[in-house]
């Protein structure tokens, strides 16, 4: 067997080693390493379009931040923005007392005579006693959100007057209450427990604003001198209904006119 002597070392071998060794090391690294799990590997190179470069992996979207209270500008009752940082004033709540401005005073309630006058006995919430001999229940019982009442008496205590103003949720509710008052007048004579009773027709009262109606009545024992003469009036304007009743002994009741009709006109002026 013949032996071959190795080839003498040549500087060319060093150049080959410098070229092949890095390639060999790179092949070993690629074959032995898995994919990169760093999420940053999917990020596009700055300046490149999304999806360019390495294949895009499906990413789980980050959770949305929880809702936190946001600062909203407060609004004034008129609907416009109010001063930032200040709370808008609270609006009036339903159920408050009806405005006393629509209740007649002592000087405006029609007097029974030229020399007569009225004194306020009491005022406040409507209460449980209905105003008027023909009324079954107070205004609050037929839909009024709130109602205020003022009672009057003559100095000698013979004459009395009462007025209630009720505020309803809307004008339709006030209209329905007006219809209820009309219905109560229609069967009033059958319900009054007096030997003598007479309820007159419901008549329109010309008013400056709203709708006015009234009727007269008399009731009591057989002798007319011991009974009562009465006038009842109704005023409706928007979502308000006001009722008034004036009573007096027949001898003190004015002749030729009904003070309740005059009261209706004066109540209506408070809504103008």
Concise structural overview:
This protein has 272 residues and is α+β, with helices and mostly antiparallel strands. It contains four helices and eight strands.
Explain the layout of strands and helices.
Blueprint: H1 11-32, E1 119-125, E2 146-153, E3 160-167, H2 171-186, H3 188-191, E4 196-199, E5 203-205, E6 211-220, E7 228-237, E8 240-248, H4 259-269
Antiparallel strand pairs: 1-2, 2-3, 3-8, 4-6, 5-6, 6-7, 7-8
Any overview of this molecule?
The structure is a single chain. The chain is globular and about 45 Å long. 28% of the residues are buried. The chain contains four helices and eight strands, in the order H-E-E-E-H-H-E-E-E-E-E-H. The longest helix is centred in the N-terminal third of the chain and has 22 residues, at 11-32. Strand 5 (203-205) and strand 6 form a beta hairpin. The protein has a domain at 100-269: Protein Transport Mog1p, Chain A. By secondary structure, the protein is an alpha+beta fold. It has helices at 11-32, 171-186, 188-191, 259-269, and strands spanning 119-125, 146-153, 160-167, 196-199, 203-205, 211-220, 228-237, 240-248. Strands 1, 2, 3, 4, 5, 6, 7 and 8 form an eight-stranded antiparallel β-sheet that branches.
